[in-house]
Amino acid sequence: MKLLMEMKMNFFKQHTKWGAVAMAVAAPLVFAGCGGGGSVPGGVRLGQTKTLAGAGEAGTADGPVATARFNNPVGVATDAAGNVFVTDYDGNRVRRISNGVVDTIVNQANFKHPFGIAFLADGRLFVQTDNNDAGAETATSGTIWQVNIAAKTATVVARNLGLPRGLAAYDTNQLALSDLSQHDVRLLNVDTGVITPLAGLRGTPGFVNGTGTAARFNRPYGSVRLSNGNLLVADAGNNALREITPAGVVTTLTGTGTAGFKDGALNEAVFNGPQDVVVDSLGFIYVADNFNNRVRRIRNGIVETIAGSGAQGYAEGAGSQAQFFGLEGIALSPDETTLYVSDGNGGSGRPFNRVRSVHVR
């Protein structure tokens, strides 16, 4: 237990360096429904977890997935063709996994510490870096870049925004920015650079439902737009998932505000630092529950664990056999059968630098 807590604190040194968040030791393991690795059509078990690319050792080598190396992968996104794009935080690169091969898409001067990553519906790719294009890294230096995949270059769209590590497509030309250092959610028009507040009071953390600046968040991370038009945000510091209407009305979908672990109904489930969320066409919501070291799913109003034992580490297998170390960004394959997970080292320098795949349907 002492080693586990030490590893958690090492993670916070990098990924929560701009503020403090309370931690709690996870409750005893409980697997709901078929989250423990029940069978699915085709013989593959639900939650079957494998390594897609990378290894324990850190590096930036491109090439076949078996020999390619990453250096703390944190964010992940997929394009319409099923290619997997990864923000390699300590490698200062954007990487692509395609047809069993890893290549580097962005590696240029002053493109440092990329984290958030998202595609708009038209195929344009955007990435957030903690550093600005002058190389500065502060609590407000976060910068949004547009990536030209063909040219393998990145161009600044907006700089010095805070630390909006949560990047999500909002509509045809807007990105939702969830800002972990400023504790609010805003919209960025990528064509004009205009930023519109959506919810939360900038610079003021808290846990309050309300409208616009009356609402409070605590270190909001990943988000996704739901079919009803609302934005769902992983509110990491509040251990909750929050929903925001286009009018800025904030409610809590699930999570009690207290760190811990419990599957079950939305009003009873407990999370510990949820960091990213995605949704599929059936309305199933997948959650990267970072400090519980688990992938959770919300289906028919029930929260269930589909992968991860709760122990921090590395192991393949189905359901509770799998282990994760730095579970951060997640993304679905276009056919919605596979969840890709950036499973990095959490800034600890420990030998965990992989992109994982989890069978979900």
- Give unreliable regions as ranges: 1-41
Largest sheet, spatial ordering of strands? 2-6-5-4-3
Structural class: mainly beta
Gyration radius from CA atoms, angstroms: 18 Å
**How far do the termini sit from each other?**
34 Å
* Number of helical stretches of at least 4 residues: 1
Global morphology: globular
Main beta-sheet annotation: 5 strands, antiparallel
Helical fraction: under 10%
Mean pLDDT: 90
Strand content: 35-45%
The ordered H/E elements are: HEEEEEEEEEEEEEEEEEEEEEEEEEEE
The tally of strands reads 27
Summarize the entry for a quick read.
With 361 residues, the chain is mainly beta. The chain contains 1 helix and 27 strands. The longest helix is centred in the first third of the chain and has 14 residues.
Characterization of this structure:
The chain has a five-stranded antiparallel sheet with strand order 2-6-5-4-3, with no helix packed on it. The chain has one helix at 2-15, and strands at 49-55, 63-64, 73-78, 84-88, 93-98, 101-106, 114-119, 125-129, 143-148, 153-158, 166-169, 174-179, 184-189, 195-199, 210-211, 220-225, 231-235, 240-244, 249-254, 264-265, 274-279, 285-289, 294-299, 302-307, 327-332, 338-343, 353-359. It is mainly beta. The chain is built from one helix and 27 strands. It is globular.
Can you tag this structure with a few keywords?
361 residues, mainly beta, globular, 1 helix
Secondary-structure blueprint:
Layout (H helix, E strand, L loop, with lengths): L1 H14 L33 E7 L7 E2 L8 E6 L5 E5 L4 E6 L2 E6 L7 E6 L5 E5 L13 E6 L4 E6 L7 E4 L4 E6 L4 E6 L5 E5 L10 E2 L8 E6 L5 E5 L4 E5 L4 E6 L9 E2 L8 E6 L5 E5 L4 E6 L2 E6 L19 E6 L5 E6 L9 E7 L2
